[in-house]
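Morning F.,

Quick status update on the modeling queue. The single chain you submitted on Monday has been processed. Sequence for confirmation:
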Amino acid sequence: MEWLLIVVVVVLVAAALVWRSRQSRERAATELADALAEARRVNERLGGQIYNLNGSNAAAQLALADASERYIAAGSQVDQASSPVQARLAKQTAVEGLYYIRAARTAMDMDPGPAVPELEGRATAGEVSEDRVIDFENRRIAASPHPSSETPNYYPGGRVAGRPVPAGWYSEPWWKPALVAGAWGIGSALLFTSMFSGMSGVGYGAEGFESGYGEGYTDGLSAGDQDYGGPGGDTGGQNDWGGDGGGFDGGGFDF
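Structure tokens below.
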């Protein structure tokens, strides 16, 4: 009888493990399906906005072009997503596109439309709060809270290659070399300092930019960790900022 009891226990344990495994797979499948459905919904909303707008000026046209790029990218990400995390990344791409739609409508003096979901990293990145023009490496770079013929390039705010980029309108997309190369190069911190130093809408400096403000930076600030001589703690050995950009010169950006 003792061996029979052992067999029964083993069978019951095995059955419980199979049931738990099945439940886990079903939950994962449901979570993925829900995340994909949400990403598709947001991207369909983006697509509808794109097809219903025509840019009447350079700023609006550039913003709509960026929105279209995000729409295509989000659709591809949805098709390839095999996990809820990947599906949520696709949604974020579509959300970014919706910010470009709002920018295009603003540039055409239209109502920006209904609110859109919060874009990850946007709140901590800050925003351009005043007109600013700098001379940087023989280039004139302007930033403004408003679109104009001088500042037709919009960025909704967020993170590029691990660094915060404030929301605003710019004379050129100075963040694009890092977007293409996947890493910031030498000179980017100086550009950031020259552009945003003392600007009320950007509550951090070059140290925060280099350390990826918003990703543990504020925690280090509150803890008073000053390993590199400034707030936010040790940069984790990022003297090269995560890489040298692969020699990428950004087409004249000299990063």
